[in-house]
Specification:
mainly alpha; 80% helix
């Protein structure tokens, strides 16, 4: 199974599990056991998604830009780990739990839609389509 397929299957899985939790909260069945099971399922989806995404970077980025891309990726991930709880707290004070869970579902749906991008592995085609990306030059040059 390809990395792209793993990511495209994990995101909708995470979204559907989050939607299920939002529905359960909205109809008033939020037992602690169910919440733990759903959190376990979400974590299981993330276990597959995160490594597949990191391993897919070399397919998406020219080799000369891998270090810079890895740095930016880690910067964004660290920023989300720091800002996630802050934004979650702000949303929880303004909205109910089902609404906050639907924000999470929307994020996973957007991520799933982004996975529909085709990845080109043929270097000749890449050089013709994106000469600046494969030659090491920037667009401004």
């Amino acid at each position: 199974m390809s990395r792209k397929t793993v990511m495209m299957m994990a995101d909708p899985f995470i979204a559907s599990v989050s939607a299920l939790l939002a529905i359960l909260f909205s109809i008033g069945i939020p037992s602690v056991r169910i919440v733990y099971v759903i959190l376990f399922l979400r974590a299981a989806g993330s276990v597959f998604h995160a490594p597949a995404m990191q391993a897919a970077m070399p397919m998406l980025v020219p080799e000369s830009e891998l270090t810079k891309t890895g740095g930016w990726s880690q910067f964004i991930q660290s920023g989300s780990l720091m800002m996630g709880p802050v934004l979650g707290t702000m949303l929880m004070t303004a909205f109910s739990i089902p609404v906050v869970m639907l924000v999470d579902v929307a994020g996973a749906v957007i991520a799933s839609a982004g996975g529909r991008v085709r990845v080109c592995r043929d270097k000749k085609v890449l050089e013709q389509a994106l000469p600046c990306a494969t030659s090491g030059h920037t667009i401004t040059q």
